[in-house]
Amino acid sequence: MHPTPALTKPHGTHGIIRGLDDTPRTGPFEGRFGRMFEKLQAANFEQADLAKLGGLMTAELEAVPTPETKPDDEENTGIRAGYTYLGQFIDHDLTFDPVSSLDRQNDPKALEDFRTPRFDLDNVYGRGPSDQPYLYRSDGLHMLLGDRLTGADNDPNARGVPRNRPVPDEPARALLGDPRDDENVIVSQLQAAFLRFHNRVVDFTATSNFEEAQRTVRYHYQWLVLNDFLPTIIGLETSSSIKAELPRLRFFKPGHYGGIMPVEFSVAAYRFGHSMIRPIYRLNTNLERLVIFRQDGTPGDSLVGFRDFPSNWAIDWRLFFNLEPSPNPNLGPTRIQPAYKIDSSLVGALGTLPAIVTPKPSSLAERNLQRGARLGLPSGQEVAEAMGVKPIDDDLLKVGKANEDGAKSNKPLAAQIPAMKGKAPLWFYILAEAQQQFKTNDTPIHLGEVGGRIVGEVFYGLMLADKTSYLNAKPDFKPIPSFCSPDGQFGIAELLKQAIQS
Fold it and tell me: How far is CA 133 from the centre of its chain?
C-alpha cells in the first residue's frame, strides 16, 4: 500500500453568493467539504487496482442499441430517465469543487465548495438581478430565456437557455448561474424549464417583488426534492423513516450542517446517477434517438453540451417523466424512457469520455474511484459498520449488470481484485448494495440502506440547517393548489407542466 502523502491545500477564493449571510460557516469560504464519519480511516488502494475496477465496472460498447420496440433488461422499472438529470441539476445547486485534483491526496476540509450547500437554486438565480442583470429581463423580475425550440408537440413555446454570441464562429456561451447546467442537452433544457417555471410563478401570482417570486419557486423546488425526487431515489421506506425521525438525524450531525458538504455524499453516495445513464435517448418523437457521446470525440448528433443545439431539439418531457394521467406504452417511441438500473456497471460510452468533456483518465468509473481515494474515503464495509448495518459478504459483492444474465455471470469483487477483499471503495459498494435488490429483470431498484440513508440525511440535514428553507421559514407550506395533480401531488412532472404554460 502507498502511505497517505501530506495533505495539500488549494488556494483561491470566490465572490460572495447571494444569501451567504444566512449560511453557517466554518471558514472564509461559502462552504467546505468535510466528513460524516470522521473517525474512520482512509481505505488505501493501489492505483492499478482502481484502474482495473474502473474497467470491470464499464460495460462493453453496444454495436447496436436495444430498439425501442424490444425490452431492455438494463432499464429500471422504478425510475424514469428524467430523474438522472434532475439529480444532476440538484447536484449543481449544492456542490462545485473546481480545485481538487486526481493527482494528489486532498484534504476535504481544505476544499472550497463554490456552491452554497443549500437548496436555494443559486445555479438558476446566480447572485440575483442586481448583481447579474444579464440573467434577467429588463424588469428585473422575469428570467431571460433563450431561443425558441421546436419538436415537442405538447410545447409550442419551448425555449432553450439564453446564450451570448460575441463571435459568429465561436461556441455560444450559456448565460447561467452555473455553467455546468449546459453540460448536456437534457440538463440544459431542464435549466430552461426552471427559468420558465419562475416566470410562470411571477405571472400566476401577479407579484411585482422578485424576492417573493424567488421564495415561492424555491419552496416548490424544495418540496419536490423531498417529496418526489428523494423517495424515488432512496425508496419510500427510507425516506419516510428519516422524515419520521426529524429533527434528529442519526449520522449527519448538527456540526456538519450548512457549512459542511460531506465527501461521503458528494464523492460516493450521490454519484449513483452515473450508473443510471442510458447510452441513447429520444428527445422528441420527431427526431431519431441521440447517443450521449460520439466515439470520434466530436459533439455531432450527441447530447454533448456547451454549444448551440439544433432548433428542432426541444425535449418532450412526456418521454422522461410521467406527465400524463394515463400511463404511456411500455415500448415504442412514445413511451417514458426508464433510467438504467442503479448497479455496479456503467454504459460503455462512459469508459472513453471525449476530450471535449473531460481530461484523462477518460473512464468515468476510474475517475470516480480515484477521486474517492484521493479524498481519503473509508471503505464501504467500514461505513456500513459505522451505521450499524451488516456489511455485504464478499461473495455477494459482485461487479456487473443487474440483469438475469449478469446474475449468472457476475464475479465477486474480491475474487478479481484480492486487495479489495473486505474493503471495497465506498462508491462501488453503494452501487453494489443497491444491486442486492435484484430478483428479475423487472425488479425496481433504488439506493440501499447505506447509500439511501447517506443521501436522505444530507438532503434533510441541509434543508434543516437553512433557516430560509420552507421546513424552517414556512413549515405549513403547501404547493399552489392549481399547480398540483388532481390527487394533490406536486413533483417535477407538475413543475414541468406549469413551465410549459410560460
Answer: 28
Q: Count, in order, helices (H) and strands (E) of the chain.
A: 16, 10
Split at pLDDT 50, 70, 90, the class of 260 is: confident
Torsion of Cα atoms, 180 then 227 then 342 then 364, to 10°: 10
Question: Whole-angstrom Cα distance, residue 402 to residue 75?
Answer: 9
Task: Give the C-alpha separation, 220 to 200, whole Å.
Answer: 12
- Residue 68 DSSP one-character state: T
- Look at the block and give the residue holding cell 422575469: 142
> Across the strands, what pairs with 340?
75
Task: List the beta bridge partners of residue 425.
Answer: 379
Provide the percentage of residues in the chain whose pLDDT is more than 90: 79
- Residue 387: in which H helix or E strand, if any? none
Q: Please state the separation of Cα 204 from the chain's center in Å.
A: 29
Cα separation, 265 vs 243, in Å, equals: 18
What does the block give as the cell for 190?
431542464
| Helix intervals (H) in 68-209 | 82-94, 122-125, 185-205
Mean pLDDT over all residues of the chain?
89
Instruction: Provide the angle, in degrees to the nearest 10, between the axes of the packed helices 492-500 and 210-224.
Output: 140
Query: What is the average pLDDT across 134-147?
Result: 97
Query: What's the CA angle centered on 310, arms 306 and 315, to 5 degrees?
Result: 85
* Long-range contacts of residues 143-146, Cβ cutoff 8 Å, at least 24 apart: 143/195, 143/196, 143/198, 143/199, 144/175, 144/195, 145/192, 145/195, 145/196, 145/199, 146/174, 146/192
Please check the confidence at residue 258 and state whether its pLDDT lies above 60: no
**Confidence at residue 259, expressed as pLDDT on a 0 to 100 scale:** 59
> Residue 210: in which H helix or E strand, if any?
helix 210-224
How far is Cα 264 from Cα 380, in angstroms, rounded to an integer?
Answer: 10
Q: What is the b/e burial string over 373-410, where b = at least 16 CB atoms within 10 angstroms of the residue's CB?
A: bbbbbbbbbbbbbeeeeebbebeebbbbbbbeebbeeb
Look at residue 106 and tell me whether its pLDDT is greater than 60.
Answer: no
Locate 361 and state its grid cell: 483518465
Is residue 339 within 8 Å of 76, Cβ to Cβ? yes
Please state whether the predicted TM-score (pTM) of the whole model is above 0.70.
Answer: yes
Q: Tell me which fold the domain 20-500 belongs to.
A: Myeloperoxidase, subunit C (1.10.640)
Residue with the three cell numbers 464523492? 267
CB 282 within 8 A of CB 334: no
Lowest mean pLDDT segment, chosen from 11-20, 176-185, 306-315:
11-20
**Residue 97: pLDDT above 60?**
no
Cell of 249: 438525524
Query: Sign of the CA dihedral 119, 16, 85, 213?
Result: positive
Average pLDDT for 22-35: 47
Bridge partners (DSSP) of residue 338 are: 80
Please state, in angstroms and rounded to a whole number, the distance separating the CA atoms of residues 250 and 52: 35
